[in-house]
Design a protein that fits this description.
about 160 residues; alpha+beta; Arc Repressor Mutant, subunit A; 3-stranded antiparallel beta sheet; 6 helices; 3 strands; about 60% helix
């Protein structure tokens, strides 16, 4: 029987490993997103971290990571006249909170954080011009908290 503490530690470890895989795939192709199949993620988990999990465990973990705000997932699909709805791979984006988590475990993600920071600043500037009242209470507060808490590493 698992204790709550072990389950919490496992969640953190598995989250880190999945985030690391998603970051590696995104970085490999020079994007801030990737769209690996579930089997690809499971294969890379086993290859890189010697962790073997089933698809249902991966899906539960991805759902938890999305709820925690570490990733955003977009289900990709198209409609075919004959076959109906055809599901394609899911698009994964690591959020600033996810990159902050990776940074804390030692993954070099400053390039991605700076790109996201610029995108966010651009969106905030556009929003403040469009909305004379300014940002609504609660808008992007968690992202702004993360950005405010991020400091580049010291070089000596």
């Amino acid at each position: 029987m698992k204790t709550g503490n072990n389950e919490k530690n496992q969640l953190s470890t598995l989250s880190s490993e999945i985030l690391s895989i998603l970051n590696g795939l995104s970085d490999k192709f020079g994007h801030l997103y990737c769209y690996p199949s579930q089997m690809k993620i499971l294969t890379l988990l086993e290859k890189r971290f010697n962790v073997k999990r089933c698809r249902s465990t991966l899906n539960r973990q991805l759902k938890k990571m999305e709820k925690l705000g570490l990733i955003e997932r977009t289900r990709r699909h198209k409609h075919d006249k004959v076959k109906g709805m055809i599901f394609k791979s899911t698009l994964y984006k690591i959020t600033l909170k996810g990159y902050d988590h990776l940074r804390k475990i030692g993954v070099k993600v400053w390039k991605q954080i700076n790109i996201l920071r610029k995108i966010l600043e651009k969106k905030l500037n556009l929003k403040s011009h469009d909305d004379k009242k300014g940002p609504r209470k609660g808008d992007l507060t968690t992202i702004m908290d993360i950005i405010g808490g991020l400091k580049p590493p010291e070089f000596t």
